[in-house]
Amino acid sequence: MNRGLIFDSPFLLGFEHTRSLIERAAKAAAESYPPYNVEDLGEGALRITLAVAGFSPDQLQVTVEDRQLVVAGRRDVGQPAKSEEAYLHRGIAARGFVRSFVLADGMVVDRATLEHGLLHIDLARPEAEKRVQSIPIQTVG
After folding, report:
1. SS3 string of the chain?
2. Which end of the chain is more exposed for a tag (fewer CB within 10 A), N or C?
3. What is the pLDDT of residues 43-77, one digit of tens each?
4. How far apart are CA 55 and CA 86, in angstroms?
């Protein structure tokens, strides 16, 4: 069954945001570079670790926009590149990238650290504030 048909049902009104989240998640899953791990650190905390060997902190950018975490790596275009002929084998990718993750409601980025070619992004889910709202009852007539 096509995902579009599910969300086009007249019984699922107002779920356009959910549809867009699923589409963004599907697009993000299709990306394969750079490789990454997701660890459960307990108590609602997660760590995403990306293999970014060869990138310096100023070549990496971590942003969050509309519940989407985006990690980008840009290679300096002005940097002199080694001749392709100098390599006998080239297994370390030297290209830029954009990797995105859809975050659940309430997830926040605590910090990002670069250590030994690994970019660690720590996420937390702070406990939601308990809120009680009293609704006044009106009488008519």
Report:
1. CCHHHHHCCCCCCCCHHHHHHHHHHHHHHHCCCCCEEEEEEECCEEEEEEECCCCCHHHEEEEEECCEEEEEECCCCCCCCCCHHHCCCCCCCCCCEEEEEECCCCCEEEEEEEECCEEEEEEECCCCCCCCCCCCCCCCC
2. C
3. 889 999 999 998 999 999 999 998 899 999 998 76
4. 20
What pLDDT digit, counting tens, does each position of 11-41 carry? 666 666 666 666 666 665 566 789 999 999 9
Q: What are 27's two structure tokens?
A: 């697009």
Left, alpha or beta for 13 (phi > 0: left; psi -120 to 50: alpha)?
beta
Query: Any idea of the CA torsion for 8, 13, 16, 17, to the nearest 10 degrees?
Result: -150
pLDDT at 1 over 60: no
| Domain ranges across the chain | 1-30, 33-79+91-127
Which CATH number, 2.40.40.10, 3.40.50.790, 3.40.50.10540, 2.60.40.790, labels domain 33-79+91-127?
2.60.40.790
